[in-house]
Amino acid sequence: MSKLRPDELDDRLASGEDPFVLDIRPESNYRAGAIEGSSNVPVYDDLRSGDESTLRARLDEIPGDRDVVVVCKMGIVAKRATRLLDGEGYDAATLRGGMSGWRGYQNGSLSYKLRSLLWKLR
């Protein structure tokens, strides 16, 4: 299963690679702040409880001809979605740190810089 750091996603978006950014958080969280151009399929709560059926029922909303980057709050539940998508033939990756990591990257926070350093060392 693939993982993408926020700076890597930003580079891909800026270069015009056009990955499909799939935000699985609840709609209220998505409306409160999301990655520009992302699409919301709010299956976070179901996946967190182990129910994959909601995401499976909405696969037609996810293009099969583009790389998919899955976003949640912290990146943990997004791993489940990424694993499911991989199994369905999608080229999917999880955004490391989720929206928390993305916001930290955008703000240049110290906690993001430290976390990013750890990711690079792994």
From TrEMBL:
Q: Which SUPFAM superfamilies match?
A: Rhodanese/Cell cycle control phosphatase
Coiled-coil stretches noted in the UniProt entry, renumbered to this chain: none
* CDD domains the record matches: RHOD
Q: Where is the Rhodanese domain?
A: 15-111
Q: Which InterPro entries match?
A: GlpE_sulfurtransferase, Rhodanese-like_dom, Rhodanese-like_dom_sf
The organism's superkingdom is given as Archaea
Fetch the PROSITE patterns from UniProt: RHODANESE_3 (PS50206)
Q: What is the protein name for this chain? A: Rhodanese-like domain-containing protein
